[in-house]
Design a protein that fits this description.
Blueprint: E1 2-6, H1 12-21, E2 25-29, E3 41-44, H2 49-58, H3 62-70, E4 75-78, H4 80-85, E5 86-89, E6 99-104, E7 115-121, E8 125-131, E9 136-140, E10 145-150, E11 153-159, E12 162-165, H5 176-188
Parallel strand pairs: 1-2, 1-3, 3-4, 4-12, 5-6
Antiparallel strand pairs: 6-9, 7-8, 10-11, 11-12
């Protein structure tokens, strides 16, 4: 099993070290030709969704990734990655628009919006959650399932092969969410 990690901007190295700890093969997706290599799952890291969105278009990678996600490639989006997948982004354009969620960017405020908490994640149990200028999910629809909430806000969800978290499991010691994603990939193969 090989995971492609979108490595244009943001916290991709942290995801890679989680995959290393779990013994999963991965490679970085930095340019169009990287998308020709076969991979079984894709990680869209945290960072700045507007910058990543812009680079995806400029590097002519947008359509091909969108097509792969639409055809069922398992994908895990954290924070900005969650925003890239959302069908609706409040006051902002959407990007891939593949997941039936409505999100609010910088939902906890821009400067003071970083905090940690511990909450229940469906199918895993209580895990640490680190939020960095995070969005939250205002609403899920169609067959999107809510996996976690913090302070009454939806912070993790799944729809088919798409998994998103508003928090950053890759900056904690908790390997459970990445394990959950690798299981999604294994079930899909
Ligand atoms: N605020 C960022 C955005 O809107 C997301 C922050 C993050 O990924 N840590 O894209």
């Amino acid at each position: 099993m090989t995971v492609g990690v979108l490595a244009l901007q943001g916290a991709f190295v942290e995801h890679e070290s989680m995959l290393e700890k779990l013994g999963a093969d991965y490679f970085e997706i930095r340019q169009k030709k990287d998308l020709e290599r076969p991979f079984d799952g894709l990680i869209l890291p945290g960072g700045e969704s507007t910058v990543m969105g812009k680079l995806l278009y400029e590097l002519e990678m947008f359509e091909s990734i969108q097509k792969k996600i639409r055809s069922g490639l398992p994908v895990f989006g954290t924070c900005a990655g969650l925003i890239l997948l959302a069908k609706e982004v409040e006051n902002n354009p959407s990007y891939f628009g593949t997941m039936s969620i409505r999100v609010k960017r910088n939902a906890y405020g821009r400067q003071l919006g970083s905090f940690c908490t511990e909450q229940e994640f469906k199918g895993i149990g209580r895990i640490p959650m680190s939020f960095i200028r995070a969005p939250y999910i205002e609403n899920v629809y169609d067959d999107t399932e809510i996996l976690a909430q913090a302070d009454g806000k939806i912070v993790a969800a799944r729809q088919g092969n798409q998994l998103v978290t508003a928090f950053h499991p890759e900056v904690t010691d908790c390997l459970e969410v990445h394990t959950y994603f690798l299981n999604m990939i294994a079930e899909n193969r």
